[in-house]
Design goal:
Largest sheet of chain A: 4 strands, mixed
Strand content of chain A: 25-35%
Order of helices and strands of chain B: HHHHEE
Radius of gyration of chain B: 23 Å
Helix content of chain B: 55-70%
Number of domains of chain A: 1
Shape of chain B: elongated
Family (chain A): Belongs to the SPCS3 family.
Number of strands of chain B: 2
Shape of chain A: elongated
Number of helices of chain B: 4
Structural class of chain A: alpha+beta
Membrane topology (chain A): Single-pass type II membrane protein
Main location (chain A): endoplasmic reticulum
Distance between the termini of chain A: 48 Å
InterPro entries (chain A): SPC3
Oligomer: heterodimer
Number of helices of chain A: 2
Largest sheet of chain B: 2 strands, antiparallel
Protein name (chain A): Signal peptidase subunit 3
Chain lengths: ~250, ~100
């Protein structure tokens, strides 16, 4: 500590130690925060249609288009160390070959921000049933993003989606999906903290963390291909930018 | 004149402190940084606001740098009375292994 340079090195070196220890304690502190997530998923409608993976493809594949109802209460997942929660809905169906694990495909997802997270264009905007869809474009960019953030009619982590269209149509590696049985929809998530470990959805209790209650739909079947398309088969497009694209 | 000026600049940049000052600086570093880390966590946890933790610990670190790095007069209270080179040349008999040095 005899000269300026040595003192700078000493102080900075001890600062890194303190910063690491504080981060470790923060990461561990979340286990005293009780969690009791619950969710219910219901199938609304499922159709299988034939289509091409992209415009120039000669191959035809079968795509499942699944509409669903989703009600969640994940507000307890948001503690002081939560940055955002990545929420997703999987369709799980047995593989066509025996002795192979079931296939899982995500049909819908959302990024739910914590209140401490700075605003981002990819954060989920809950559809508001009360307001009309037409919005006047605001000139003030900050005011607009602020307004968008507060648009959800429900508290943080609570979703109530009725007859929700999927974000992604799904297909199988074999290209055939019709008449598959024992399909379920299952909710999953990934809690992304400011510092610490990523936590996935689980069903078992761990200390004061209760497992997810519900979150799995009843078993259903992928129907036969409809030759004539019925109803709305569009995927979800909404307020977030880059929806359905990699962020 | 130029030499004297350069010496002053070098002293200011090196910022040397005495031995007691070094002990004090070490103690202040440990106490201030440790306390700011503990306070930052506790306050942030109470307020459930992780930004508060970040800002308090960064502020505490800045304070520590300010308190310890410059050679404040507090760290120079016990200077070592070194023998000056002038006196060494002029008169002392210093024996090293029977030989007369200086």
């Amino acid at each position: 500590m005899h000269s300026t340079v040595v003192r700078v090195q000493n102080v900075f070196g001890f600062f890194t130690t303190v910063a690491f220890c504080v981060a470790a304690v923060i990461a561990l502190s979340v286990i005293v925060n009780p969690q009791s997530p619950s969710a219910s998923v219901q199938l609304r409608n499922v159709q299988v249609v034939r289509g091409r993976p992209h415009y120039y493809s000669y191959k035809k594949e079968e795509y499942a288009h699944i509409k669903f109802n989703l009600d969640t209460d994940l507000s307890t997942l948001f503690n002081w160390n939560t940055k955002q929660v990545f929420l997703y809905l999987k369709a799980i169906y047995p593989s066509s070959k025996p002795n192979t694990p079931p296939s899982e495909a995500i049909i819908w997802d959302a990024i739910l921000p914590a209140s401490s997270a700075p605003n981002h264009q990819n954060y989920y905007i809950h559809p508001n049933p009360k307001k009309s869809q037409t919005k006047k474009p605001s000139k003030n960019k900050n005011a607009k993003s602020k307004a968008k953030r507060d648009e959800s009619p429900y508290p943080r982590g609570e979703l109530h989606l009725q007859n929700q269209r999927p974000k992604y149509q799904i297909t199988d590696i074999t290209g055939r999906l019709q008449n598959r049985t024992d399909v379920v929809l299952e909710l999953g998530w990934n809690v992304q903290p400011w510092v610490g470990a990523l936590v996935w959805a689980n069903k078992v209790d761990f200390g004061v963390w209760e497992g997810l209650k519900g979150g799995v739909s009843e078993r259903f079947k992928f129907p036969e291909i409809k030759t004539k398309k019925e109803g709305d088969l569009g995927t979800e497009k909404g307020g977030e930018k880059n929806r359905g694209k990699p962020a | 004149m130029a030499d004297q000026l350069l010496d002053k600049v070098r002293d200011a940049v090196e910022g040397q402190i005495d031995f007691e000052g070094q002990r004090l600086a070490e103690l202040i570093t440990t106490v201030l940084l440790g306390a700011s880390g503990i306070i930052a966590f506790l306050v942030g946890f109470m307020a459930q606001d992780i930004y508060l933790t970040l800002y308090i610990s960064l502020g505490g670190t800045a304070l520590t740098f300010l308190a310890v790095v410059p050679p404040w007069p507090v760290y120079k209270k016990n200077p070592i009375p070194w023998l000056s080179p002038h006196t060494a040349v002029s008169g002392f008999n210093i024996n090293v292994d029977g030989k007369k040095v200086g």
